[in-house]
């Protein structure tokens, strides 16, 4: 699937497919630039298990919170703009070109 920009240039959207939670530092930069709510911060315990969405209200998951990572929880909302990948300091995201995704 190729798109055309306003000036007629060809462009292929690249959709956010995954975030490597072992590399992600949970800084939230990608979340802040995403206008579509594609990802959210989730808590992780000492064993590396995802605890759930961190809603910012002193949620420590009964003392089990070790760190936070970003998780793609609404991939279908992604428009393929790539803003999240450009602001990620760890380059932990995987994007897939629209023409590589099955309909």
TrEMBL record:
Keywords: 4Fe-4S, Electron transport, Iron, Iron-sulfur, Metal-binding, Nitrogen fixation, Repeat, Transport. It comes from the Bacteria. One of its GO terms (molecular function) is metal ion binding. Coiled coil: none annotated. Residues 15-44, 68-98 form the 4Fe-4S ferredoxin-type domain. Gene3D superfamilies: 3.30.70.20. The keyword NADP does not apply. This is Ferredoxin III.
């Amino acid at each position: 699937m190729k798109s055309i920009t306003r000036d007629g240039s060809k462009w292929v959207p690249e959709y956010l497919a995954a975030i490597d939670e072992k590399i992600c530092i949970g800084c939230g930069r990608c979340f802040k630039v995403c206008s579509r709510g594609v990802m959210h911060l989730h808590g992780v315990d000492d064993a590396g298990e995802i605890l759930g969405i961190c809603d910012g209200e002193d949620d420590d998951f009964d003392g089990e919170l070790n760190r936070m990572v970003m998780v793609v929880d609404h991939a279908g909302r992604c428009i393929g703009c790539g803003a999240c990948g450009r602001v990620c300091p760890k380059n932990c995201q995987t994007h897939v070109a629209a023409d590589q995704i099955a309909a």
